[in-house]
Amino acid sequence: MEDILKLKNKNIVVMGVANERSLAWGVAESLYRAGANLIFMYRRERSREKLERLISDNKYEAKLIVQCDVSSDESIKNAFVEISEKIGTIHGVVHSVAFAHSEDLKGDFINTTREGYAFAQDTSAFSLIAIAKESAPLMTEGGSIVAMSYLGAERVCKGYNVMGVAKAALESSVRYLASDLGQHNIRVNAISAGPIRTVAAKGIPNFNTYLHQIEETAPLKKNVTKEEVGDMTLAFLSHLSRGCTGEVVYVDSGFNIMA
Ligand code: NAD
Question: Is the CB of 211 within 6 Å of ligand 1?
Answer without folding.
Answer: no
